[in-house]
Inverse folding.
């Protein structure tokens, strides 16, 4: 390998005059070897260790990013090629294509390494113009909350905002984002499959920050947290240089590992000698966990909160009475705008009505399926009317949540359960790699949201035999409550291998989904869902003369949330939809108690009943979050 590296260096040197390039001597080889193992160099090239024989591989999958043909897996070869390129006069027509202009972060780092080399530094007009336009002063980590309606944002998302010098409006800053460059024609199943298997190229983009706020905060109604990073001006400049280097390359995108949050950490690592934040994310990179990693690294400073448009409307509605809400709906939903009803209210109440009506009209007009073509003009008209009133003290600011999205419970969970079913005792060992369920502590997570993938449990019977109890491939519940203006759909989907008591606890595959609505009263959520279930297994053949079972029916659920405990009760009624007239009824109640932020106790009572068959189960669990 050393011979190949030196051969490559000599070939490169052959294309430049001897006076232009200082060739590394044998005495320099150990220094270059050491420099190639420097963590900053490895970070700049996004190398990570993959084994013993070939210990490094760059996570950048675009061969054009490397100057050496060996560069994707050989840090030393890429370092030597870079040193030679930075000493070689560029002979092309477009000076912007010189290596120094394409890789300014590498050049800046190498100049500080005391190599005794005078690198050629040509004018780079395109890079310099772009760098001056960004004009970065500081960097903010931006954390939009989880969004269950998008597979790539179910766990949340992170991006970075570069604050411009002398700019007091964050919306006019630039956002640095890493995301999958997906085919817009791919459906959710194809999108999820490709996202899990690296089927999409991930790309770095730089856009005005207001576009991202509009997308996340307004169109998707997601709260946004912003964290200022403790970066020096030199580190900010190096980050901007590195963004320039990677902005036209691609990295295979993986939802769980090499995702938005992971790659942003990698870019921050490449910009600061102080950071090595990606080391703890070999398999999973949940956005909230990456925020915690930066907090542990000591680089998070002040935090700010930007509530979503729905959070703002819900806060405003708390100050409106029923008559005001009716007037808001009339102003927005009637095809012809009439202001006659406003005269029944005081000037302050009129200002409140017009403010909420304006926000509501904008919210509805942003919905893709809105059929109210007049809403854009209506929003402008309502804003004009609202501007005629005193804007002070119309509404108080939205309260910042007591627990931030990065301060909720940790996302991985293990647990042990002891229980009894019809006189038979059992034990369970469970593991959930991520993320949250309805009985977990609610602080820092979406209300009414549940999300986990690839979790499972092993059962231990009285005779100490071990068996798979359940493998859940995907489990999502979105039970967002309605308010006086917005009625989001509640829905759930679950795909798993699970034990079915009606066929002697055989392991079957079950796909279940449902839709409905949720209402909130104080700390209580009341949900009605209409579910459909399809179960597949050889064991159904004897009872159903077919290897599957299709069911359909309603489910009622109640969830109470306290500070340290939660209670959930549900009743489900499922009818067979084919010639078999069996009906399954499932009633259960569950209670959870938070011992401390990392430990929880749960109790569950459940009854499943079908015709003359019945199964009663009681169990207690101890769960640990880490």
């Amino acid at each position: 390998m050393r011979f190949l590296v030196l051969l490559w260096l000599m070939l490169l040197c052959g294309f430049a005059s001897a006076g232009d390039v200082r060739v590394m001597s044998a005495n320099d080889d150990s220094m270059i070897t050491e420099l190639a193992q420097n963590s900053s160099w490895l970070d700049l090239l996004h190398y990570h260790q993959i084994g013993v024989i070939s210990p490094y591989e760059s996570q950048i999958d675009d061969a054009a990013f490397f100057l050496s043909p060996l560069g994707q897996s050989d840090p030393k070869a890429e370092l030597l090629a870079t040193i030679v390129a930075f000493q070689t006069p560029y002979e092309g027509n477009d000076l912007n294509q010189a290596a120094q202009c394409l890789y300014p972060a590498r050049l800046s780092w190498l100049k500080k390494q005391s190599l005794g080399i005078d690198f050629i530094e040509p004018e780079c007009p395109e890079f310099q113009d772009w760098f001056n336009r960004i004009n970065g002063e500081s960097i903010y980590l931006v954390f939009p909350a989880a969004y269950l309606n998008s597979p790539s944002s179910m766990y949340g998302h992170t991006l970075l905002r570069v604050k411009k010098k002398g700019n007091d409006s964050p919306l006019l800053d630039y956002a640095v984002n890493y995301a999958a460059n997906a085919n817009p024609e791919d459906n959710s199943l194809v999108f999820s499959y490709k996202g899990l298997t690296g089927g999409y190229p991930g790309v770095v983009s730089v856009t005005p920050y207001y576009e991202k706020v509009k997308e996340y905060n307004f169109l998707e109604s997601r709260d946004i947290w912003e964290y200022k990073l403790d970066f020096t001006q030199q580190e900010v400049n190096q980050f901007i240089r590195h963004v320039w280097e990677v902005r036209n390359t691609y990295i295979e995108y993986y939802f769980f590992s090499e995702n938005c949050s992971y790659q942003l950490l990698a870019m921050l690592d490449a910009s600061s000698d102080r950071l090595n934040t990606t080391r703890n994310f070999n398999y999973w990179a949940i956005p909230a966990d990456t925020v915690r990693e930066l907090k542990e690294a000591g680089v998070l400073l002040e935090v700010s909160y930007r509530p979503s448009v729905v959070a703002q409307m819900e806060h405003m509605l708390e100050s409106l009475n029923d008559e005001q809400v009716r007037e808001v709906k009339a102003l927005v939903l009637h095809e012809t705008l009439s202001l006659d009803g406003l005269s029944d209210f005081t000037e302050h109440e009129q200002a409140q009505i017009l403010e909420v009506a304006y926000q509501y009209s904008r919210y509805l007009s942003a919905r893709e399926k809105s059929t109210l073509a007049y809403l854009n003009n209506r929003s402008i008209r309502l804003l004009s009317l609202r501007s005629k009133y005193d804007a002070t003290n119309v509404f108080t600011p939205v309260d910042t949540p007591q627990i931030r999205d990065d301060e909720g419970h940790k996302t991985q969970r293990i647990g042990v359960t002891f229980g009894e079913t019809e006189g038979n005792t059992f034990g369970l060992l469970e593991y959930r790699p991520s993320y949250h369920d309805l009985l977990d502590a609610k602080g820092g997570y979406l209300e009414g949201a549940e999300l986990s993938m690839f979790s499972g449990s092993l059962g231990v019977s009285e005779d100490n035999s071990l068996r798979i109890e359940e493998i859940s491939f995907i489990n999502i519940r979105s039970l967002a409550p309605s308010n006086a203006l917005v009625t989001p759909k509640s829905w759930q989907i679950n795909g798993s291998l699970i034990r079915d008591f009606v066929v002697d606890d055989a392991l079957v595959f079950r796909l279940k989904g449902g839709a409905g609505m949720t209402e909130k009263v104080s700390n209580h959520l009341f949900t009605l869902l209409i579910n459909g279930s399809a179960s597949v297994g050889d064991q159904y053949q004897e009872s159903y003369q077919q290897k599957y079972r299709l069911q359909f029916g309603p489910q009622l659920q109640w969830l109470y949330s306290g500070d340290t405990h939660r209670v959930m009760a549900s009743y489900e009624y499922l009818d067979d939809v084919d010639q078999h007239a069996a009906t399954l009824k499932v009633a259960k109640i569950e209670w959870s108690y938070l011992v401390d932020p990392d430990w929880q106790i749960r109790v569950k009572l459940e009854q499943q009943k079908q015709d003359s068959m019945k199964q009663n189960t009681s169990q207690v669990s101890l769960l640990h979050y880490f």
About this structure: The two ends are 42 Å apart (CA to CA).
